C-alpha cells in the first residue's frame, strides 16, 4: 500500500498534466489537510477552469482517516460548477451549476475518492463538454 | 524533435534551445488548451503516426476520448517540449479543520449552525 507521501506526489504528478498546480500538505498533531488547486490550462494561457481538491484527515490508530473532502471543478466562461463534498451537517452531497446558472442546491451523492473524481472532471475538460446536471436528486433536510 | 535538439532552431516551434530549459515564451506556435495528434504533428513537423507512437509509449500524455481520438492538454504538451512543470508545494504543521467553516460561509443558511448553549461560557473554537 502506498504511503501518504507517495499518494501526495502521485496526485500532483497526475494533476500537473492539466495545468499549473498549487499544493499544500498541512500536518498537525491530530489533523492533516491536503489541498490542490489546478489552473487549467495555465502555461501562458488564461485560466479557463480550476480544479480545487481538499481533503481533511484525523489521526487514528489505523493512520490518517479522511473525514471531510471538497472536490470542485469550475469553469470561467461560461461560469459553471461541478462539486462533490463531504462536510458538516450535510455529509456526503454534490453540487451542480450548469453554464450561467447559480445554484446552492445540495444533491444526493455517494462517497468519492480524489483521483477517480479527477478523472471525471478531466473527461469534461478533454471533451470540452459543458457541465450537465441531469438525473440528480435533491437532498431534503428537516 | 524539439526536446532532443537543444541547440537547433525548429522553424515550426520557433524555439532556440541552448544550455537552459525552454520556457513557454520560447514557442511561437498557436497555443490552445487542447491539441489533437495532428496539431502536434504539424507543430513538430513529424508524422501523425510518430505522435501516436509517443502517446502509446506514454512519452506524451494524451486523454483518449474515442476509439481513435486523443486530446493532449496544453500543460502536457509544454512538459513534453521540456518546459518544467509548474508546481508549487507548501508543507506546514498547522492543520486545522477549515472545510466546515469555509463552506458554512459559502453556503449560508444551508449548514446547521453549531450554537453554544446560552449561559454556558465556552471558549470560542475557530472550527
Quick overview of this protein structure:
The complex is a heterodimer of chains A (142) and B (127). Helix content of chain A is 18%, strand content 41%. Chain A is α+β, with helices and mostly antiparallel strands.
Secondary-structure blueprint:
The complex is a heterodimer of chains A (142) and B (127).
Chain A: H1 4-15, E1 20-27, E2 31-40, E3 49-60, E4 63-75, E5 80-87, E6 91-97, H2 114-126
Antiparallel strand pairs in A: 1-2, 2-3, 3-4, 4-5, 5-6
Chain B: E1 9-10, E2 15-16, E3 34-35, H1 37-44, H2 48-56, E4 63-66, E5 69-73, H3 74-80, E6 87-92, H4 99-106
Antiparallel strand pairs in B: 1-2, 3-5, 4-5
Helix pairs in contact in B: 1-2
What key attributes describe this structure?
heterodimer; A: 142 residues; alpha+beta; 6-stranded antiparallel β-sheet; 18% helix; 41% strand; B: alpha+beta; Arc Repressor Mutant, subunit A; 3-stranded antiparallel β-sheet; 4 helices; disordered N terminus; disordered C terminus
Can you tell me about this structure?
The complex is a heterodimer of chains A (142) and B (127). Chain A is flat. Helix content of chain A is 18%, strand content 41%. Chain A is α+β, with helices and mostly antiparallel strands. Chain A has one domain (4-126). A six-stranded antiparallel beta sheet of chain A has the order 1-2-3-4-5-6, with helices on one face. In chain A, 34% of the residues are buried. With 127 residues, chain B is α+β, with helices and mostly antiparallel strands. Chain B has a domain at 9-80: Arc Repressor Mutant, subunit A (Orthogonal Bundle), CATH 1.10.10. Chain B has helices at residues 37-44, 48-56, 74-80, 99-106; strands at 9-10, 15-16, 34-35, 63-66, 69-73, 87-92. Chain B has a three-stranded antiparallel beta sheet with strand order 3-5-4. In chain B, strands 1-2 form a two-stranded antiparallel sheet. In chain B, a hairpin with a 2-residue loop joins strand 4 and strand 5. In chain B, helix 1 packs across helix 2 (48-56). The longest helix of chain B is centred in the middle third of the chain and has 9 residues, at 48-56. Residues 1-9 and 108-127 of chain B have low confidence and may be disordered. Chain A binds chain B through residues 12, 16-28, 31-33, 40-45, 48, 54, 56, 68-70, 85, 87-90, 104, 106, 122-123, 125-128, 141, and chain B through 24-25, 31-34, 61, 63, 65, 71, 73-76, 78-79, 83, 85-100, 103-104, 107, 110-112. Strand 1 of chain A pairs parallel with strand 6 of chain B, so a sheet runs across the interface.
Amino acid at each position: 500500500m502506498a504511503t501518504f507521501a507517495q499518494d501526495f506526489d502521485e496526485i500532483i504528478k497526475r494533476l500537473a498534466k492539466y495545468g499549473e498546480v498549487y499544493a499544500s500538505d498541512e500536518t498537525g498533531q491530530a489533523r492533516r489537510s491536503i489541498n490542490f488547486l489546478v489552473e487549467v490550462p495555465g502555461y501562458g494561457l488564461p485560466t479557463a477552469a480550476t480544479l480545487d481538491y481538499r481533503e481533511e484527515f484525523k489521526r487514528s490508530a489505523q493512520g490518517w482517516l479522511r473525514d471531510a473532502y471538497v472536490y470542485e471543478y469550475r469553469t470561467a466562461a461560461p461560469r459553471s460548477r461541478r462539486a462533490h463534498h463531504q462536510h458538516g451537517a450535510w455529509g456526503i452531497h454534490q453540487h451542480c451549476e450548469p453554464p450561467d446558472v447559480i445554484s446552492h442546491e445540495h444533491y444526493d451523492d455517494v462517497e468519492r475518492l480524489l483521483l477517480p473524481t479527477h478523472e471525471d472532471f478531466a473527461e469534461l475538460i478533454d471533451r470540452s463538454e459543458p457541465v450537465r446536471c441531469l438525473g440528480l436528486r435533491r437532498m431534503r433536510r428537516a | 524533435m524539439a526536446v532532443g535538439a537543444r541547440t537547433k532552431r525548429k522553424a515550426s516551434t520557433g524555439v532556440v534551445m541552448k544550455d537552459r530549459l525552454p520556457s513557454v515564451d520560447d514557442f511561437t506556435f498557436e497555443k490552445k488548451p487542447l491539441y489533437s495528434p495532428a496539431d502536434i504533428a504539424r507543430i513538430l513537423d513529424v508524422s501523425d503516426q510518430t505522435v501516436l507512437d509517443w502517446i502509446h509509449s506514454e512519452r506524451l500524455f494524451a486523454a483518449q476520448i474515442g476509439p481513435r481520438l486523443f486530446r493532449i492538454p496544453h500543460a502536457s504538451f509544454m512538459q513534453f517540449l521540456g518546459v518544467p512543470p509548474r508546481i508549487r508545494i507548501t508543507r506546514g504543521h498547522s492543520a486545522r479543520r477549515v472545510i466546515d467553516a469555509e463552506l458554512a460561509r459559502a453556503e449560508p443558511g444551508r449548514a446547521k449552525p453549531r450554537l453554544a448553549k446560552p449561559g454556558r461560557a465556552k471558549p470560542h473554537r475557530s472550527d
